[in-house]
Design goal:
29% helix; 144 residues; 4 helices
Length: 144
């Protein structure tokens, strides 16, 4: 049976859903091999925002080649998913690090601990990564 195409903006509702879905980030290592890693995200308009250290494989890959792919899915029948391919920009501005670190932590850990997570993550070599989508595939009710 064919996948059900979701309405054009359905992907935004899915990304924004609470409890928050963990995104899986795909990057290419310097040697050409793939890496997939779970990340916490937040949507800012059309962009996806997350944080990572510039010293990690993820960070180094993003700084070297700003192309990434993300996948979020609902593992419960009838199953839904969103994949986002895009290009990235990065920032190590302390105010942005604190703002996004706190906001993203609130989505995943709750408001009561968000400030502590934000402060912990608002230090070098952390960076804010913004993904500008170039291609989105959103499917809902895959098993129907």
């Amino acid at each position: 049976m064919p996948y059900n195409a979701a309405p054009d903006d359905w992907w935004k509702t899915f990304v924004d859903a609470l409890p928050a879905h963990t995104a899986k980030l795909a990057v290419v290592r310097a040697d050409g091999s793939p890496l997939v890693a779970p990340i916490w995200i937040e949507r800012d308009g059309e962009e996806i925002v997350f944080m990572t250290s510039a010293d990690t494989i993820k960070g180094k890959s993003i700084l070297r080649d700003g192309r990434v792919s993300l996948c979020l899915d609902n593992e419960t029948p009838p199953f839904d998913f969103v994949t986002i391919s895009g290009t990235t920009t990065t920032s190590d501005d302390p105010d942005e690090l604190l703002r996004w670190g706190t906001s993203i932590a609130a989505r995943y850990m709750g408001a009561e601990v968000a400030e502590a997570f934000g402060k912990r993550n608002a230090v070098p070599p952390e960076m804010v990564v913004r993904v500008t989508p170039t291609h989105i595939v959103a499917k809902n009710n895959v098993a129907d």
